[in-house]
Write a structure and sequence with these properties.
Order of helices and strands: EEHHHEEEEEEEEHHEEEEEEHHHEEEE
Number of strands: 20
CATH topology: Penicillin V Acylase, Chain A
CATH superfamily: Penicillin V Acylase, Chain A
Number of helices: 8
Strand content: 25-35%
Strand order of the largest sheet: 1-2-5-6-7-8-13-14-15
Distance between the termini: 17 Å
Shape: globular
Helix content: 10-25%
CATH class: Alpha Beta
Structural class: alpha+beta
Radius of gyration: 20 Å
Length: 413
């Protein structure tokens, strides 16, 4: 058993931006690690990051042995693919990063831009009384990551953010099957994911996050779980939101690559937003209230529970995190239950990111909704659309009309 499928999700044509693949991989965790590492090395130009000191590599292997044995086995496969011994302490074999450029240390991008919006509709108001409908926009720029945010063009031949995203279905011999969506790491794609039990996660930038945003996503002085590994960790080990909370509270999460908070939901309709408190570094959860939706943009949900206390913003700042939160609230208030899966997609579409004047909108340079997902966790299944390009300004607005791919739905046999 190994890679059972690796095919373009749709035909790639000139002028269309995203070129995603659908990958299905099965077997032992060691085999999964080996096959994905071989693919990453041969097709995605992936090179492993080094630890600053072997003590970090040794301690991290011990951490995974105790806390996530499946990743420890995957790492052995990665080591084999790269010709390293299974007990190598120099290289980080728990990540397969790609299409990430000009990373720096000591210069966090936290708070410098807003990215992404997401939501969970109330199960109590679903059309079937059991449908758990989620949707999210993954907003970044169709330009090299992280070069663009640091004012650089990226190296020659660089690929843009999520240009080579993947939908990867993991079918390990033991443990839960899962589907992960996203680019920039083959081993643990970290934008969205679901498992066969209906557990779902999606990540967002957190403007108040404390961490090494913009730094390499692996190696260095990383210990415990990196934030970009957290989603895959939860899907591998948990079936419910309650399971996920306990798993988070009994591990170490380190903010690298991006400072994030995470929306987590399950097939029973439970949902929460996980955040790391800026002052105390405590792990904090804000739960969905019965009969109500749960929205997440880019400010700490736990700190701003009352919209009347949101900081002031210009009405022209349509990508401002507080503007989007209020717009989601206002639009939802006008919606009529019972809700369908498509209602979640339609709701998040009102905060679709594509502007003519990015500065006026408070968006990053050429920021776009690059990936849109829409789930029904009661099945469970995930539907994905990808950014293809711009069609031009929408007259009378600051909006840019964009082309998105057709929706493609992935589930479990």
């Amino acid at each position: 058993m190994a890679i059972l499928k690796n095919e373009p999700i749709y035909p790639f044509t000139e002028g269309n931006y995203a070129k995603p693949h659908h990958i299905i991989i099965a077997g032992s965790e060691e085999e999964i690690g080996y096959e994905l590492a071989t693919l990453a090395k041969e097709k995605y130009d992936c090179t492993l990051e080094k630890y600053d000191n072997p003590i970090y590599g040794e301690a991290r292997r011990e951490f995974f042995k105790r806390n996530w044995p499946a990743m420890n086995e995957r790492a052995k496969g990665v080591s084999r693919a790269y010709g390293l011994s299974a007990d190598d302490n120099e290289y980080d074999t728990t990540a397969l990063p790609y299409d990430v450029y000009d990373c720096v240390r000591g210069e966090s991008i936290s708070g410098s831009f807003s990215a992404c919006s997401g939501l969970v509709l109330p199960i109590e108001k679903s059309d079937t009384k059991k449908g758990v409908f989620t949707a999210r926009n993954h907003d970044l720029f169709p330009l090299p990551t992280w070069s663009t945010l640091f004012g650089k063009k990226g190296p020659e031949g660089a690929h843009g953010c999520e240009e080579r995203a993947n939908v990867i279905e993991f079918r390990p011999d033991k443990g839960y099957k899962s589907i992960l969506v996203g680019g920039h790491d083959i081993l643990t794609p970290f934008i969205d994911g679901i498992n066969e039990k209906g557990l779902y996660f999606t990540t967002f930038a957190d403007s108040h996050g404390v961490g090494a945003g913009g730094a390499p996503m692996a190696g260095g002085r990383i210990n415990g779980l990196s934030d970009v590994q957290l989603g895959a960790y939860l899907l591998s080990n948990c079936a419910t939101v309650e399971d996920a909370k306990k798993a988070i509270l009994t591990t170490r999460v380190m903010q690298v690559g991006m400072c994030i908070h995470m929306l987590i939901a399950d097939g029973d309709g439970n949902a929460t937003v996980f955040e790391i408190d800026k002052t105390s570094q405590a792990y904090v959860f804000t739960d969905r209230k019965p009969g109500e939706p749960l929205f997440c943009t880019n400010h700490p949900i736990a700190l701003y529970t009352d919209s009347s206390k949101f900081p002031a913003y210009s009405e022209e700042a349509e990508h401002n995190t507080f503007y989007r939160m209020n717009l989601l609230d206002k639009t939802y208030a006008d919606m009529k239950a019972p809700f369908k899966k498509s209602d979640a997609k339609d709701l998040v579409d009102v905060v679709h990111c594509a502007f003519v004047d990015d500065k006026k909108a408070e968006a990053a340079f050429e920021e776009r909704t690059l990936i849109n997902t829409n789930c029904d966790l009661s099945k469970p299944e995930i539907t994905v659309r990808f950014y293809l390009g711009d069609d031009g300004p929408v007259p009378g607005t600051n909006h840019m009309k964009t082309r998105m791919s057709e929706p493609f739905t992935f589930g479990f046999d």
